[in-house]
From TrEMBL, chain A:
Its main location: cytoplasm. InterPro entries: ExoRNase_PH_dom1, ExoRNase_PH_dom2, ExoRNase_PH_dom2_sf, Exosome_comp_Rrp42_subfam, PNPase/RNase_PH_dom_sf, Ribosomal_Su5_D2-typ_SF. Signal peptide: none annotated. It holds the Pfam family RNase_PH_C. GO terms for cellular component: cytoplasmic exosome (RNase complex); nuclear exosome (RNase complex); nucleolus. It is found in: Cytoplasm; Nucleus, Nucleolus. This is Ribosomal RNA-processing protein 42. It comes from Didymodactylos carnosus. Belongs to the RNase PH family. Residues 33-167, 199-262 form the Exoribonuclease phosphorolytic domain. The keyword Cytoplasm applies. Keywords: Cytoplasm, Exosome.
UniProtKB/TrEMBL annotation, chain B:
One of its GO terms (molecular function) is RNA binding. CDD domains: KH-I_Rrp4_eukar, S1_Rrp4. GO terms for biological process: CUT catabolic process; exonucleolytic trimming to generate mature 3'-end of 5.8S rRNA from tricistronic rRNA transcript (SSU-rRNA, 5.8S rRNA, LSU-rRNA); nuclear polyadenylation-dependent rRNA catabolic process; poly(A)-dependent snoRNA 3'-end processing; TRAMP-dependent tRNA surveillance pathway; U4 snRNA 3'-end processing. GO terms for cellular component: cytoplasmic exosome (RNase complex); nuclear exosome (RNase complex). Belongs to the RRP4 family. It is found in: Nucleus. Gene3D superfamilies: 2.40.50.100, Nucleic acid-binding proteins. Keywords: Exosome, RNA-binding. This is S1 motif domain-containing protein. Residues 72-150 form the S1 motif domain.
Amino acid sequence: MPRVPVASEDERKFIVDGIQSDFRLDGRTSRMYRPVLLATDVVNTANGSCLLKLGGTIVMAGVTFEFTRTSQESPNEGRIEATVDGSGCHSLRIFGRQRHLFTKQISRSLNYILNNPKCFDREQLCVVKGHHCWLVHVDISVLRYEGNLYDACSFAMKAALSETKVPSLQVTHDEETSEVTVDVCDDPFQFGLLNVSNLPVFISVSQVSGIHIVDTTLKEDSVTLARITYGVKDNGNIVYMSKDGGGSLDLLNLRSMSKVASDIGPQMNSLLLDKIHLSKAKQPLWGHVNENLLFDDINFV
Amino acid sequence: MPDSLSSGQQHMSLVVPGTILTNDTSNFMRGHGTYLDSTKTKLKSSVAGCILKVDRLLCVEPKHMRYIGEVGHVIIGRILKVDQTRWIVDTNSRLDSYLPLAAVVLPGGEHRRRIDDDERNMRQYLKEGDLVSAEIQIVHQDGTLSLQTRNLRYGKLSEGILVQVKSSLVKKTKNHFHSLPCGATVIRGCNGYIWICPPTAATASNEQEHHTGGYVRSIETISLDERKTITRLSNCIQILNRYSIPIYDTSIMNIYSASLDYEINQSIEPKIMDILAKQTLATQENIGTYE
């Protein structure tokens, strides 16, 4: 959690008082998210992409495929890895090594849920068992940072993966020579889709003077002492947990924070799913190339 | 950001980097934000912004830029460091600004020479992270600003919300301290920092006795109603900034009264923001105050 001086002592008191009366700096209640806006299929060169705005935080996710050999440990599984890059972001006011560590922490969390077989089925990325598989890169870049990067990154990743077009391949197996040939299909409109229905989203719950709030902004981060990021599935099950910040938490707090996360998790999951459907319907309207459209909120859902 | 709201004429003068401003280089002079291309036959824009023409001089004023100070401007700054005899202040300008110890009124309003004790106690008055309202006293050769808070109107800011907007949007007027009829005080810093706080006696009346320079901390907590007004104003000013509408007391009040139809937490939703911005522009044009 970046700790930059964004508020004076009196400002902090104002923020804490507001949270205690369930009225935050922008009028939200403790369990409200900022508006989520997303547009899918925004990058021509990626198999799947998504631009997501969570209030002022803007992230862009792109999914690309690479053809590679399967690993020895898991011969019938493909590989997937997520990276978060914040190097081009001016509003992320952490510099040097700290910035790298901050974004790396997020990509590590994302990789954790991607490599959990209960969350993401990597067998769908296998092309020829024991031979070839896809290596999927999920590249997330931070375009603007105004708090709660964890959740924004996981939303963007889920949206981008659910929209990803897997290139279709023709696998021919020669019985006599036992040679396997893989050909890329000529038709660009023939593609498969990934199953991401089990993929959790991150819900970060912060504790500010005994009250648990979600989706903290940059200013609210300055009064947050402890934060837990939960990975919550659409049925409310928690599959991932990581603590952030120096403050301590007791068991009672932990329990009520998990309760908050598993309450909100299904809501955010279904909201995201709705938005992805809407965005997919909107895609043919504007197709590829026109990046200018991204500056107008009308093109987001 | 949404530019579709601005009128047609403004669209004509908006340029992006690389736009050819003129082919007639002999009759125009190269101003700020422009450059001659390698063939020396075309004058091009080097920033994104509005064209400004003064006789033969051609300039481009960037839309997003760091604040360029002028003497007498009211600004809001955040203390970055406490130095030997001065505070180093962030004022959204290219270089850090300075607030010398000699340029503040000491608590109690004593007028005397600053002694070593004062230097030692500097952190008690203002420490890192604190916000101050101040006036620009000197603009140095390199653009560094020297500030002063000699008037008791200026000084440390207590509880409230700071909103950061584009400095070009803050309309320069006679008064930058407004106590709005909706029950809040707004200080529009020319550097794009806008401070919203509960109404204080200091700005409500002109009597000097009420001014404390902010060094006396009040222990009263802010009521929920006041907090709601402040939050609504802060959301409204952020909408004005997003839609590039000039920010001054009338425009703030216009958008505030338009936003009363909605809940406060609705005014961060893009659709509502769009409606509010359009309503504000419409009322401004009706009254004829929009420039």
